[in-house]
Amino acid sequence: MTALVAGFLLVGYLLAPGAIYRFVFSQVLPSKRIQRTRTEEILFSVLAVILPFAVAFAVSRTAIGSFPHLHIGGSKSAAYEAVLEALLSSPPVPNVVPAFQRAFYEQARFLLYLWPLCAFEAWLVGRLVRHYGDFPERSFARWLCDRFLLKQVSEWHVLFSRMSLPTDDPRTVVVVDALTSQNLIYRGSLVNWFLEQDGKLAGIFLEDAERFNRDDLKRDREAGVERDH
Fold this sequence. Notes:
The protein has 229 residues and is an alpha+beta fold. The protein is built from 7 helices and 3 strands, in the order ααααααβββα. It has 2 domains: 133 residues, no CATH class; 50 residues, no CATH class. It has a 3-stranded antiparallel beta sheet with strand order 1-2-3. β1 and β2 form a beta hairpin.
């Protein structure tokens, strides 16, 4: 029984909030694809859940936190005391099913506040990072993004998108010079890019692309000759 309760708390308060945060954030901005260890996953979930947990706890202390009203297993405090006694005692305490039911419903009600708050936090952080280029160089928001938040975003999105520019004007064009293994340079407006499962760059799609031979281009530049292609 103790293992079952511990598993419920681990999933409800750490793993599920972390998964919700990552999913919602990835809907706002492409997330960095990294393989975390179990310890790193738990640490990430702890950091992601701290603020939503504090807000959910504050809400639970108000009149809103008692809705819907529960009429099973006695009072909340008595139910938690009975559950704790049942988990710590040997042999098991009889007739604790109503207390477990009341404690489970109380936890479910708290998670009903916690999980949406985790989703809202992820959406809010994603929206903040999207305006990274608009923040002044020495502002707190810029420092916060550089120090913590940008680590969640795919490095290719930061490099290829307009996110790091002072404006997100859709008329702004990102131009790429791509050097191939055949010593050819392709220059064009970036339309899209593709990643492998591990987050490595798989390919890019350029519009109005031009092709140059790198050695010829270098030789022309040294001779002061300008060529269009």
